Amino acid sequence: HSSGKDLFHSVSIERQRVKSASNNMPLLVSLNRSLLAPYAVRSIIRTMSLLVNEPKYSFLKELGIEEDNKGVYNGKWIGNGEVLTSICPSNKRPIARVTQGSMEDYDSCIKASQEAWQVWVDMTAPARGEIVRQIGEALRAKLIPLGKLVSLEMGKIVPEGVGEVQEYVDICDYAVGLSR
Fold this sequence. Notes:
Elements: H1 4-10, E1 15-19, E2 26-30, H2 33-47, H3 59-62, E3 68-70, E4 72-73, E5 77-78, E6 83-87, E7 94-99, H4 103-121, H5 125-141, H6 143-154, H7 158-178
Parallel strand pairs: 3-7
Antiparallel strand pairs: 1-2, 4-5, 6-7
Helix pairs in contact: 5-7, 6-7
């Protein structure tokens, strides 16, 4: 079948008589779509090729995106929770997988951010401005690949995705000006 929706229509068998292999006794099988659907979708997605591996989407690798990625940052990338597959809304194909954070991961992230905040507030405005300038430069250096990523994940046209990233760059530039 061409899509998950078609698969669910083909699984419209609500009750079907099948014979048990062990004793040839009829066995009534009920397929409940509402219970099976999430598992069927996950199964379909696992077997589809990921866009991150296709040459057309090589910009994903340029951004450090792999088949499997960690989704929480606390000074390093971590993630010990459920695996989420990012789906492109325009072609319904899986992009890559992200391991979400567990409660412990999020707690470590909050702790790390609180520690970083203590360092940040003790810095002078020009020193903070320099860090924001570097963030803006890093975004500017990856403007097109980041814009393509926004486009891919949000189903937008590429110029809109690039425009969103450019807004972040502009905000960084503005903040640098305020820090002087």
